[in-house]
Amino acid sequence: MAPDFSAAGAMAGKPLSVNLKAALKKGPVVLYFFPAAFTGGCNVEAAAFAAALPDFTAAGATVIGMTAGNVDKLVAFSSEHCAGKFAVAAASPAVIKGYDVLLKKPDGTPTTITSRTSYVIAPNGKVLFAHTDMNPADHIKLTLEAVRKYKAGKRG
To answer: At what angle do helices 139-155 and 40-58 cross, to 10 degrees?
Structure first.
């Protein structure tokens, strides 16, 4: 089961509170963790999620991004790289531990930022899919496939 959380975040350049339980009331949630705002891979990933948002919306999903890296930049990041299309939030130490997304260095020592990990969470809170890869390339494709699979299963 996905740990519930409420976190300070932003969408379209405006601060807001992000709550998993509230988002799940609308349907499945794609919760993706990224290392830090305004870094190469994270900018690309946020823009790709923003570009694919109509597909996620059509499949009934809400997208939420989370990071422990430079959370003071999330208001600007939410409008510049997320195109104002989805919320991004600050991951607390409890959320990072609950989702097991603390990035470790190659020697195994922990850092203070989150790994690049994407989850698809069903409305009942069950984790349907998880993908960890520091390369952002497949996160959008794989989470969208998982959401579509969930939606197709709900019909049949």
So the answer is: 20
> How many whole angstroms separate alpha carbon 121 and alpha carbon 100?
15
If pLDDT is split at 50, 70 and 90, which confidence band does 154 have? confident
Burial (0-12, 13-18, 19+ Cβ within 10 Å), 83: middle
Q: Amino acid identity, residue 60?
A: G
Amino acid found at 29: V
pTM to 2 decimals? Answer: 0.95
Please say whether the beta carbons of 65 and 46 come within 8 A.
Answer: yes
The single residue listed with the structure tokens 């422990």 is: 68
Residue 93 burial (CB < 10 Å; 0-12/13-18/19+)? exposed
Q: Is the pLDDT of residue 111 over 70?
A: yes
Q: How far apart are the C-alpha atoms of 117 and 115, rounded to whole Å?
A: 6
Q: Answer for the pair 112, 24: CB distance below 8 angstroms, yes or no.
A: no
CB–CB of 46/64 below 8 Å?
no
